[in-house]
Amino acid sequence: MREELIISGRMNPNIDPVLHIWHWQIPLYLFLGGLAAGVLFFAALYTILGRGKELKGAVQYAPFVAPVALVLGLFALFLDLKHQLYFWRLYTTIKLQSPMSWGAWTLLAITPLSFIWAALNIRIIFPNWDWRFRWLKDFEAFCRKHIIKISWVILVLSVILGIYTGILFSAFNARPLWNTSILGPLFLTSGLSTGAAVIILFSKSHKERLLFSRIDLVLIIVEIFFIVHMFMGFLASTQVQIDAASLFLGGPFTAQFWIFVVFLGLLLPAVLEALELAKFKIPAVIPATLVLFGGIMFRFIIANAGQVSRWLY
Q: Cα torsion for 263, 268, 271, 273, to the nearest 10°?
């Protein structure tokens, strides 16, 4: 009798019965990163368009959330790292084919810019604020002089950051649910929607809230289109991707996805925002909060379901 020894990585912990190595830190980081990207995108966009004084919620108030969200998101990512003391090695090389390399360098650039943007508007919160050091005053003057150029940089980086939060999943080819190019634009759209929701919460102008309710309504429609397109792609693909889609179509993630994400996070706020635009009195905090809830639930569900989906059956 001939004996053979088979060595497989499937014997490792957290591999069988399903891969489960990404916990709450990753979807939380992706949510906060997408939210920050959405807020900074609109702040930069309307600064470039010269509407900063008109849309103070988007350009001045809401951007204070961005650096906080980025720091908390990076801290969650740091907690997830296995070798935390070696995170700096990500910045010893640039790999254009690596989504993590793109993300690391984008975060390195956009995080300090988010602090600078908040610092330029700090007198909104503290009217008597004064930079004690001369070089800080000179730096503030320099940034204000080149605010349009800074806005263009932030605009580009925010789009990259928003797309990256989805590509981080889609580049993981071993998970059929994540192996779709639609995740990049889907996560970007979701991040812009949560960013618009934050601006609605911070806006003190009814006109501005209506503008961003209209923008958010369009983004929700686009997001639903991407979700439908994603499932159509799965169902028209190979058996493993059909099985991945079945996780949401009668499988263990059906109820939580269609109730928490699609109904509460997309359809209901879309209806409420449409009613608000039709001049019904709808408290702006309700649809905005629902959008934020749907955004974070979407990332948690996709992260968990993706680790359940696999090629080997």
A: -130
Separation between Cα atoms, residue 313 and residue 310, nearest integer Å: 7
What residue ranges define each of the domains in the chain, with the CATH number in brackets?
17-308 (1.20.1630.10)
Instruction: For residue range 9-65, list pLDDT tens digits in order.
Output: 555 555 555 556 678 888 999 999 999 999 999 999 999 999 888 899 999 999 999
Distance CA 212, CA 140 (A): 29
Rounded to the nearest 5°, which phi and psi values hold at 131? Answer: -75, 120
Contacts 24+ apart (CB under 8 A), 125-131: 125/64
Q: Do 268 and 289 form a contact (C-beta atoms < 8 A)? A: no
What 3-state class would DSSP assign to 295?
Answer: helix
**Per-residue H/E/C for 159-200:** HHHHHHHHHHHHCCCCCCCCCCCCHHHHHHHHHHHHHHHHHH
Q: Which helix (H) or strand (E) holds 201?
A: helix 183-202
Is this model's pTM higher than 0.85 or not?
yes
